[in-house]
Design goal:
Elements (H helix, E strand, L loop, with lengths): L1 H5 L3 H21 L4 H32 L9 H23 L4 H5 L1 H30 L8 H11 L1 H14 L1
Length: about 170
């Protein structure tokens, strides 16, 4: 799996992240009755999120291994953020799919907002870890990537331009 993701083509990335979301959206648009449809939707969306997290986990650690040990960023926050996003996404999607309203939203909207905000910040932390490792592995920066670098890397075109640079790094070695 690691070799596949370090030399991934755009079609591989489509199957990783885009296809599960499209399946989830198709289930939502078709609106089949019953709880099974809600579970299919939640399962498809979660599968897409989980695959993006798997991609980021493998790429983050693979790039981290390419960096000189004295320059390597700490992986502890990256791991915590990845685990939190995976756990919270599963809890939220399947809770929402089973119930007509989310337990979080029905009980305490502030708690719902706080967990969503933490999950969004955790995703930004994951992207920052990957962009820092990418910059250090390419040798373009000697210090960790700035937040502006992180946002510009992922806002220009998403994962595809990043994957192209990753393929170049792993193709060189």
């Amino acid at each position: 799996m690691r070799e596949l993701l370090t030399q991934a083509k755009p079609i591989h990335l489509a199957f990783i992240g885009v296809v599960p979301f499209l399946v989830g959206m198709a289930v939502m648009v078709a609106q089949p009755p019953g709880a099974l449809a809600k579970l299919l939707f939640a399962g498809a969306i979660y599968f897409g999120v989980f695959m993006v997290l798997i991609w980021s986990w493998i790429i983050g650690h693979a790039l981290n291994e390419r960096i000189e040990p004295t320059l390597r960023p700490d992986t502890s926050m990256f791991r915590i953020a990845s685990i939190f996003v995976a756990a919270y996404t599963a809890l939220f999607l399947f809770n929402t799919a089973i119930q007509s309203r989310s337990f979080f939203l029905a009980q305490t909207p502030l708690l719902f907002f706080a967990f969503h905000l933490i999950a969004a910040l955790a995703m930004v932390r994951i992207l920052h870890f990957i962009s820092t490792n990418l910059a250090l592995a390419e040798g373009t920066e000697i210090a960790p990537a700035s937040w502006a670098t992180t946002l510009s890397l992922f806002s220009v075109g998403g994962i595809l331009p990043i994957q192209k640079r990753i393929n170049q790094i792993f193709g060189e070695h």
